[in-house]
Sequence to fold (214 residues):
Amino acid sequence: MKRLLSIIILFAILVACKNDKKSGGEQAGTDKPAIDSTLVTDSTWGPITAATNFDELKKIYGDSNVKDERICGPECIDSLDVTKIYPNTAKEIIVHWKDSAYHKSIGLLQCYQEGFPYHTGNGIKAGSTMTDLLRINEKKISFSGFGWDYGGNIISYNGGKLDSLACRFRLDYKGQHDDNVLMGDIEVDTDMPDVKTRLDKIVVYQFTMGFYKE
Fold:
């Protein structure tokens, strides 16, 4: 009888251990991979999606890191009510709301603090040069001249691989700003001889991602 009882107890222990291992394996299998908070894709900016609202931003980044501010609009003609994540740091993200009064629906996200850590899957980041963009795009890139309020905006990728990218980039010129060849309200492109000699002085300094499309 004692022998039979010992066998039953041993069998119960073996079954319990097997179930624990099975349960542990299933739990491990359901673990989600960590989100890269600095990766910008065609539909996400780190953990932010088009459906993320103000309260969710505070849960993700912490109350003290999410602040409403009023900033200067284009040419400072108007002011804009926005939300800043990590304000006044290299990690700052500016959130423009479709409904600024309610903060329920994001219109677009921007960053342009020097040395920001955000990047795309194909390696574009702060400081990427026009040479880098051309390597990825594989076709010429047209952009506006520098030194004015709308300077450095990319006008066209001319059917290149970056045409379909949701994230848009704005450029800065690291050469001499008295170099009038690339200055002012003009359109230039990377096939022009004067631009070709300056490709590594033209760099990405701003990311913008819009969520306006339904």
